[in-house]
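Long-time lurker. I teach an intro course on protein structure, and each term I like to show students one example going from raw sequence to a predicted 3D structure in token notation. This year I'd like something fresh instead of my usual example. Would anyone be willing to generate the tokens for the chain below so I can use it in lecture? Attribution to the forum is fine with me.
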Amino acid sequence: MNTLANPVPIWPGSLPIQEISCKTPADFPSPAQDLAVNRIDLNDILIQHPEATYFMQVKGNSMTGAGIDDGDRLIVDRAITPRHNHIVIAEIDGEVTVKRLYAKNGLLKLKAENATYPDLVPSPGQQWSVWGVVTYIIKATP
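-- Reply from a regular --
Happy to contribute to a lecture. Here you go:
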């Protein structure tokens, strides 16, 4: 089971960052391209519900198939109702994990995105809850 570091709340406020108002090509840039610089706030772009959103850091590799690796930071929104196929933060018997929610045809389970990890199927009487839906994955580049 993946464990996650303590959530870090996202506080209302502004940290303006420069944005170049053009699409960034993955090939060679055009020298004739006119680049305009604006200030943006990542909170405005990444966070839909500031009062219900927090960061968590991933520890483990059960979600590598979903592009979530050890050390990544997740933006989690508690205001979004978890649905089938969402990636969620869940607590099961006091342990916190990140998994893909499978809720279909009366079956409920938390699916790992790494074949070496089993799915988690809540058993009767087991204490578990969903803390929120993962909306973004933040990665450091090597």
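Some talking points for your students: The chain has two domains: 3-9+50-138, 16-46. The mean pLDDT is 83.
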